[in-house]
Here is the input.
Amino acid sequence: MTFTKTSVSALMSLLLLATTASAAVRPALTRVVALESDKETSIKILNDDTSQDYLVQSWIEDLKGNDKNLPLILTPPLFKIGAGREGKLRMVIVPGKIPQDRESVYWLWIQEIPPASKAQGNQLQMAIRTRMKVFIRPSTLADKPAEMPEKLQWQVAHEAGKTWLVAKNPTQYYASFSELSVTAGGKSQPVADKNTMVPAKGEMRYALPASVSGKSGSLNYSVINDFGGESPVLHQTLNF
Here is the structure.
């Protein structure tokens, strides 16, 4: 395929637009924590664009991308939100359909649909999707969420020529990290895939940089709390 100077310029402009575009429609919070005992949970949606209305489409998926037969009902699936205004989604948990010994996590997707432009000529319109985590908690949980970070258990494993950081979570709550890094030889390095959660009553492993293998150092981590804030940074000495 041969690219002309014009087509290359257009392609670069499109890529720049795709990386710099931001959603006009967004949730008011960064995460939702819903209790099974609540009749419904309200989710506020904001339209930051003060010049035009948008249609908002929303749906829920589990962590594997499935949106069928979920224990959650979300309404309305499609609604209009005025310029500079706010709207509201309502989520209901189907009783008796979620695990009772731990919290469950889902993805809430929010897609803005801009109005058709009246301008003539070629133009690009982008419908931007935003997703946020939804944590569903049964009323039977006895652990306290704030105590979860200090209860995480860490160890190092060596397998197939790689060094892994293994996180074990004995609590009833998922762990989402705001920071996950290791310090060895006076150098601090981020751990890859820190955005992958450690499931409740489960474990997850993360690949460590090859440069820390065989060294002693420290693990540094903080966890995102129910309000979207960060726990204090915790440290643990480990042999990598």
User: Anything to note?
Assistant: The two ends are 48 Å apart (CA to CA). Confidence is low (pLDDT under 50) at residues 1-20. Residues 138 and 222 are 25 Å apart (CA to CA). The first strand starts at residue 25 and ends at 27.
